[in-house]
Amino acid sequence: MPAGDKFQKGQPPVWRAALFGLCPECGAPTLFEGPVKFRAKCESCGLDYGRYNVGDGPAAFLTLIIGALLIAIALTLDAMVRPPLWVHIILWVPLTAAAVIYGLRVGKGALLASEHQRQAAEGRKVDKND
User: Average per-residue pLDDT in the chain?
Assistant: First the structure.
C-alpha cells in the first residue's frame, strides 16, 4: 500500500472503488460487466482484472450476514404490525436478492481494489540454492 495512505492521482481508495465499481488504477467506472461479474480489463487504462484472484470468497459471509439482518428485521416487523404472509413475501424476497447482489458487488470490488493497491500476487516457492 502506498506510504501514508496517499494514492497516486486517479487511484480511488478501496471503499470508493468498492461502492461505485471503479477501476482501482484510474478510477473509471469500468469494474463490472454485469451485476457481479468483472470485466476482463479496464476500458480506460487497460488494467487486466483477470490477474486478481477474488473468486466467490465474500458470497457465503455476505449471504449469512444479510440473511441474519433481514430475518431480524422481518421478525421485528411481524411482532409489531402482524402483516399478512403475502406482505412478507412481496417485501423480503426482492429486498434479500437486491441486498445480496449489491453486497457481492461491494465485497468483490473491495477485495480486487485491495489486492491491486497492495500489489498482491500468487505465492512463489523460493529455491534456497540460488
Answer: 86
